[in-house]
Please model this.
Amino acid sequence: MKGTTHILGGIAAAVIWQKYFNIPIQDPIYFYSAAIVGSIIPDICHPKSIIGRRVPILSRAFSKIFGHRSLSHSLLFMVLLYLLFQQLTFYGATSIEIGLLVGVGSHILLDAMTVQGVKFLYPINMKIRLPLYVRTGSLIGETLVAMSLLTLMVLSLFLF
Model:
């Protein structure tokens, strides 16, 4: 998926999370901002991604050490983020933590919907791909996913 699709996915996941899960969000601005950031963080392993271009040294190092769609697209990565952000105690920390995890989760789910899949159980070298998938960057695939995300978001806001 492209970065803009991931951002849309992070926002959609945050809307759905806030609407359907009874977890208090201290500050919605922190929560939604963190979901957007979380939705692009996993692509730190790709130097040409939105985040990779912002921190090229870290991105190249991460890519060289772990490869693409491995550690940063895994359950282990989400657990490490959770443990790291559990240490924060300031106002809004819980909103940031949940938002980041929701955004990262949406990213991983969207990349599991591509031909390449993800190594969700990293360090186990097994790729996971959902039964319905698209080719990364294809106009039809990206448009279909983006329209589906927008529809899901609108439906969850107004109908459910």
The chain has one domain: 3-158. The mean pLDDT is 89. Residues 139 and 145 are 10 Å apart (CA to CA). The helical segments are 3-20, 28-40, 50-54, 56-66, 75-85, 93-111, 139-158.
